[in-house]
Amino acid sequence: MPFPKGFLWGGATAANQIEGGYDCDGKGLSDADMLTNGTHLSPRRITKTTEENCYYPNRTASDFYHHYKEDIALMAEMGFKVYRMSIAWSRIFPTGEESEPNEAGLAFYDAVFDELHKYGIEPLVTLSHYEMPLHLTEKYNGWADRHVIDLFEKYVRTVVTRYRGKVKYWLTFNEINCGTLPLGNYMSLGIRNEGTDNFLHQVDDLQIRYQALHHQLVASAKAVLAAHEIDPECKVGNMIAMMPVYPLTPDPKDQLKAQKDWRLHQWYCADVQCRGAYGNYCIPFWKENGIELNITEEDRRILKEGTVDFYSLSYYQTNCVTVHDQATVSGNLLGGAKNPYLETSDWGWQIDPDGLRFTVNEIYDRYQLPIIIVENGLGAKDHLEADGTVHDPYRIDYLRRHIEAMRATIELDNVPLFGYTWWGCIDLVSASTGEMAKRYGFIYVDCDDYGKGSFRRYRKDSFYWYQKAIQSNGEDLD
Ligand code: BG6
Fold this sequence. Notes:
Elements: E1 8-12, H1 15-18, H2 57-60, H3 64-78, E2 82-86, H4 89-92, H5 103-118, E3 122-128, H6 134-140, H7 147-162, E4 169-173, H8 184-189, H9 206-230, E5 235-237, E6 240-242, E7 245-247, H10 252-275, H11 282-288, H12 297-305, E8 311-315, E9 319-321, E10 328-329, E11 336-337, H13 353-367, E12 371-375, H14 393-411, E13 417-423, E14 443-445, E15 457-459, H15 461-471
Parallel strand pairs: 1-2, 1-13, 2-3, 3-4, 4-5, 6-8, 7-9, 8-12, 12-13
Antiparallel strand pairs: 10-11, 14-15
Helix pairs in contact: 3-5, 7-9, 9-12, 13-14, 14-15
The structure holds 6-O-phosphono-beta-D-glucopyranose.
The site of 6-O-phosphono-beta-D-glucopyranose has 16 residues, from loops.
């Protein structure tokens, strides 16, 4: 059976992981520009200044800044209906505090959107994907300071006004619930507490982190309100990293642990963004952890009014939780107990297409909003053959199984899923490890972990497979 007519097939990237051109045309430094490279064995470092003999992969990334025309032509060749991308805040307001935006930065995204529309590809734009002007981290400790809400609103109003008529779908913050994890301090909230250096083991202060996350939630609601006011035609979604957990055993204690995990990691932000208020379970959580949030009456009103039009999610894997001893596995943001029924990727993430169906159903049962999957994918080691081909049956297999799971979600469960954007449709820098070697793309970018290479693009086998799947609207998955 084909997918519903008009289903949005496409791919996703983020400015800091694909663009490069970190100092081109007036762009300011962003937080992501200060992350060194790493591997999954040696963590990335967060440096305060640019250190000699260190490589900063996000500064070069896949050089989309200079290859966007070629890259968009390749997306069009695959038949993309939608391209999820983000705007780098620091291209528009280099420090975040200027009163006037940087025209060259605005012009760059105009050119990208025009190029997409030339091929009939709809842009789906994330306003903030794991970066902010570095200056705001240095001066305010990122989102820890309430003043950043106003600076963000200025940026949002600038871009929504400028791209009215060109961008119909907006997302506020990428994986905003990453702020419920210590890893989210720097990457998601722009917080760099004194002593922070190691990306995986940052200095964490729950009071600071949860207050910053509250500021971000208010900013998200304000972005929804501003976008609706400026462009009543546009739709604004949230973006949640779904990191579902199953109880490992029938022990009721495992069930309680799983329920707590769902609430504190999956629903904590989503409840605010979809229902307009924090869940009841937050009160004991804050109390137990000595967190005292400053939530004003005005904040409550904004959260209530600024709920989203649709729900977007990333989904890569599931984990188990248990109170018993069990081997663990790593994961996207969060690892967990090993599930004996699932295989893992080269980077140890558990692959679970049925979990996608389960998760999307849970979301719809809770919120009854239209849903789009804006990230799903497989990071793997690829080999570029001498003739320019890349054979990636593992990626095709992962994709096929997740598309089948989406079909079941739509047809058998009657959930209004309206699109799917594969993560890293063009190879890009890994957010967690800074590697290029962890490749997600249908398009291979000839660049290594140190930014060396021709940056030429090559079509992988999965490129042709996805092209066929899109052409048949999900019917031909052979
Ligand atoms: C998501 C992020 O968490 O996972 C992306 O939104 C990220 O930015 C993706 O790249 C895959 O994770 P990684 O660490 O393999 O790049």
